[in-house]
Amino acid sequence: MRGKAGVVLGLAVGYVLGTRAGRERYEQIKTQADKVWSADPVQRQVVKVKEFAASAAMALPSTLWNSAVKVTKAAASKGTAEERVERVKAAGAESADEIQKTAKVSARAAKQAADDLSTEGSGS
């Protein structure tokens, strides 16, 4: 019985001491993580990512939506079936060109952002 009480007491003491050390270590890790997150190089990259997401990356979905609207309007317009088909074909061709241009711009912007990140990350 005495041995079991010693084990339980030992576990309790170990738990209390470990918990205190664990909390202190947690606070140290948290403080270091906050310092890294707040560092100027990290925040510069955060700003770049936000700017990219707000500009070039969002241009493509917007262009796709606008293109779909153009084609739908052309299909729903007045006129004979042949006239509407011709308007839809023209709107589709125009939309395809716009989508292709926007995709190229978005791809270039993404590549530039990745190149900027790798250049700054390497210290160059």
In short:
It comes from Microbacterium aurantiacum. With 124 residues, the chain is mostly helical.
Category by helix and strand content:
mainly alpha
Tally of individual helices: 4
- The rounded Rg comes to 30 Å
Percent range of helical residues:
over 70%
Shape: elongated
Order of helices and strands: HHHH
Distance between the termini: 68 Å
| Arithmetic mean of pLDDT | 81
Total strands: 0
The number of domains is: 2
Largest sheet: none
Proportion of β residues? under 5%
Poorly predicted regions are none
Protein name: Protoporphyrinogen oxidase
Organism: Microbacterium aurantiacum
Region (Disordered): 104-124
Descriptive report:
The protein has helices at residues 2-38, 40-54, 56-76, 81-121. By secondary structure, it is mainly α. The chain folds into two domains: 1-38; 40-124. α2 (40-54) runs antiparallel to α4 and α3 runs antiparallel to α4 (81-121). The longest helix has 41 residues, at 81-121. The mean pLDDT is 81. Residues 104-124 are annotated as: Disordered. It comes from Microbacterium aurantiacum. This is Protoporphyrinogen oxidase.
